[in-house]
């Protein structure tokens, strides 16, 4: 057990350090902060709403992550495959699970850092009014799980190919499906021909619906389980893909 | 240390490795020869546990690679083909990472990195990032990674590929030295390396072992093995024909023995004949046989072989 944690930590540390030794991390952070700032204050009309909440901020997260999370995660395994280091990594005395978890956690931690750097938004709300800080915390937690779910999906697509572009496109498509599944224009369209049970099933996969609870300050176990099972399933699939050589 | 039993790997419809069995003990350096695509790398990947065999068994140090992969992997140092490494890391960072994954910490890790750096002559580039290094240094960085935990088993896939002649020489010496205390398997398509570093060689072709023996035994399979080369003024093929089949070369003659086992006798007989006839002897040599000739004969497709 101890050696498993040691291996996971070693892999995660290398991965995280490698982000910050290349410009990718900084480019990502700047774009993420600019984009969320712009969407919140301009397109989301944060000030004009006249309410002390971060709903204008969190509402954009499923869309911002849709492009940015696959962009960070696409190299996770595709690059190891392309450079041949996958062979090095998987012939070390560690299990594939440890490598998968280590890499995933490193990338997730990086996304958490990016998310944490949006703290000025929360401060602004607190300066201007009296928001429910519990709801803000829940929103951040939900956002972190949302990012984790997208990231796990990207992990899986990245393991399938040595081409980062393919990994990117595949994960955007899958994540887009998870957004649109609960989007009312889509569900309205489906109601015309699909059975209500099918519509409900598809809608249950909607990340937006599961994220909404968090934004309202409700940490629902069902929502947590949803995100955790997307992460768990995707990482499991990553393992299956990596071991089918 | 390494025991391979009837190993088979099938990709789609192709049998890349088709029933390979061999064993390597401590103190042996096994040269793995074969044309490109013969199944050398695939076999090595199965030994190191990177790809599972379709059937057959591999055990390293008594641990079955399929059943106890971590125990087996701990004993192995592996240099994959093309020597991959993380280009954004420094040599020191990369070797520390490898040592850490091998479970080495603190002092042990420092010592391990130091020893590997010394062995692979990397001290001058220790703090450079790997993508700025020349191919030879990159290659040795990956080799250092394979040696970092002083493993009992070394699997080296083309360890001298892409090195200059001096570096090749160093790496061959290193392999020979390591082979005294470890079990080493290395693949190559440079035949001189077999002579320079191996205690035993296996030739593999289209997934099957076609020859297995010491370098001397393999060379003895050559058609010219045991023949006597003579270069002398006044020598004539008719006179030599009394001793065996004669082949006239550019300025010399090659006499093939009637009985391969008595090679020394033939050289003596040729020398006596030269003395009797008063030929001015310039060169007289019993040939060991040539590995590349053996290699070509047993690995060429049958159609070419029949000519």
Overall helicity of chain B: 25-40%
CATH class assignment of the largest domain in chain B? Alpha Beta
What structural category do the secondary elements of chain A indicate?
A: mainly alpha
Order of helices and strands of chain A: HHHHHHHHHHHHHH
Domains of chain B (count)? 2
The number of distinct helices of chain A, counting runs of at least 4 residues, comes to 14
Description:
The complex is a heterodimer of chains A (245) and B (307). Chain A has 245 residues and is mainly alpha-helical. Helices cover 80% and strands 0% of the residues of chain A. Chain B is of the alpha/beta class and 307 residues long. Chain B folds into two domains: 2-220, Rossmann fold (3-Layer(aba) Sandwich), CATH 3.40.50; 228-287, no CATH class. Chain B has helices spanning 40-47, 69-75, 91-101, 106-119, 135-147, 165-178, 192-197, 215-220, 237-240, 263-277, 291-299, 302-306; strands at residues 2-11, 14-24, 29-33, 55-60, 63-64, 76-79, 153-157, 183-188, 200-205, 208-213, 228-233, 245-248, 253-256, 280-286. Chain B has a six-stranded mixed beta sheet, with helices on both faces. Chain B has a four-stranded antiparallel beta sheet with strand order 2-1-4-5, with helices on one face. Chain B is elongated, with a radius of gyration of 24 Å. The interface between A and B is medium-sized, with 22 and 30 residues.
In short:
Chain A is an all-alpha fold and 245 residues long.
Give the tags.
heterodimer, A: 245 residues, mainly alpha, B: 307 residues, alpha/beta, Rossmann fold, four-stranded antiparallel β-sheet, elongated
Protein topology:
The complex is a heterodimer of chains A (245) and B (307).
Chain A (H helix, E strand, L loop, with lengths): L1 H20 L2 H20 L11 H4 L2 H13 L1 H9 L1 H6 L5 H21 L2 H10 L4 H28 L3 H17 L3 H8 L4 H9 L2 H9 L5 H23 L2
Chain B lengths: L1 E10 L2 E11 L4 E5 L6 H8 L7 E6 L2 E2 L4 H7 E4 L11 H11 L4 H14 L15 H13 L5 E5 L7 H14 L4 E6 L3 H6 L2 E6 L2 E6 L1 H6 L7 E6 L3 H4 L4 E4 L4 E4 L6 H15 L2 E7 L4 H9 L2 H5 L1
Parallel strand pairs in B: 3-8, 3-9, 6-7, 7-8
Antiparallel strand pairs in B: 1-2, 1-4, 4-5, 9-10, 11-13, 11-14, 12-13
Helix pairs in contact in B: 3-4, 4-5
């Amino acid at each position: 057990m101890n050696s498993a944690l040691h291996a996971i930590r070693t892999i995660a540390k290398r991965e995280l350090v490698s982000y910050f030794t290349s410009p990718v991390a900084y480019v990502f952070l700047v774009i993420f902060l600019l984009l969320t700032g712009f969407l919140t204050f301009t397109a989301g009309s944060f000030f004009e709403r006249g309410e002390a909440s971060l709903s204008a901020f969190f509402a954009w997260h499923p869309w911002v992550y849709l492009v940015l999370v696959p962009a960070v995660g696409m190299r996770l395994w595709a690059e190891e495959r392309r450079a041949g280091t996958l062979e090095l990594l998987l012939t070390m005395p560690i299990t594939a699970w440890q490598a998968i978890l280590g890499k995933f956690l490193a990338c997730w931690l990086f996304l958490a850092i990016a998310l944490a750097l949006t703290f000025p938004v929360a401060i602004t709300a607190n300066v201007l009014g009296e928001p429910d800080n519990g709801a803000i915390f829940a929103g951040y937690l939900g956002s972190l799980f949302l990012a984790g779910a997208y990231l796990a999906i990207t992990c899986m697509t990245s393991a399938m190919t040595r081409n980062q572009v393919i990994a990117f496109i595949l994960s955007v498509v899958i994540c887009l499906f998870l957004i649109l599944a609960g989007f009312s224009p889509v569900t309205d369209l489906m109601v015309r021909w699909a059975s209500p049970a099918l519509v409900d099933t598809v809608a249950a996969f909607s990340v937006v619906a599961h994220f909404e609870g968090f934004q309202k300050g409700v940490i629902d176990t069902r929502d947590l389980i949803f995100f955790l099972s997307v992460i768990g399933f995707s990482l499991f699939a990553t393992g299956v893909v990596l071991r089918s050589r | 240390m390494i025991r391979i039993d009837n190993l088979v790997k099938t990709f789609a419809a192709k049998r890349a490795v088709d029933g390979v069995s061999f064993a390597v003990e401590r103190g042996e350096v096994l040269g793995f020869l074969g044309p490109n695509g013969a199944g050398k790398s695939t076999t090595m990947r199965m030994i190191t546990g990177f790809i599972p065999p379709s059937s057959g068994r591999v055990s390293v140090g008594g641990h079955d690679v399929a059943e106890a992969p971590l125990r087996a992997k701990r004993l192995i140092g592996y240099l994959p083909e093309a020597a991959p490494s993380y280009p954004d890391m420094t040599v020191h960072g990369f070797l520390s990472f490898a040592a850490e994954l091998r479970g080495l910490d603190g002092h042990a890790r420092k010592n391990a990195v130091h020893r590997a750096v010394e062995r692979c002559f990397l001290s001058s580039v220790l703090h450079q990032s790997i993508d700025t290094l020349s191919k030879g240094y990159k290659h040795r960085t990956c080799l250092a990674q394979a040696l970092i935990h002083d493993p009992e088993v070394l699997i080296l896939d083309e360890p001298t590929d892409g090195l200059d002649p001096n570096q090749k020489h160093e790496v061959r010496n290193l392999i020979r030295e390591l082979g005294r205390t470890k079990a080493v398997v290395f693949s190559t398509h440079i035949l001189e390396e077999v002579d320079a570093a191996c205690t035993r060689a296996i030739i593999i072709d289209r997934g099957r072992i076609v020859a297995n023996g010491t370098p001397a035994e393999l060379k003895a399979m050559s058609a010219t093995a045991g023949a006597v080369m003579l270069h002398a003024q006044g020598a004539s093929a008719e006179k030599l024909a009394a001793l065996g089949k004669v082949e006239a070369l550019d300025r010399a003659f090659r006499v093939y023995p009637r009985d391969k086992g008595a090679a020394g006798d033939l050289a003596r007989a040729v020398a006596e004949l030269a003395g009797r006839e008063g030929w001015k002897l310039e060169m007289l040599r019993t040939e060991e046989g040539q590995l590349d000739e053996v290699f070509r004969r047993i690995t060429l497709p049958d159609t070419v072989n029949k000519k």
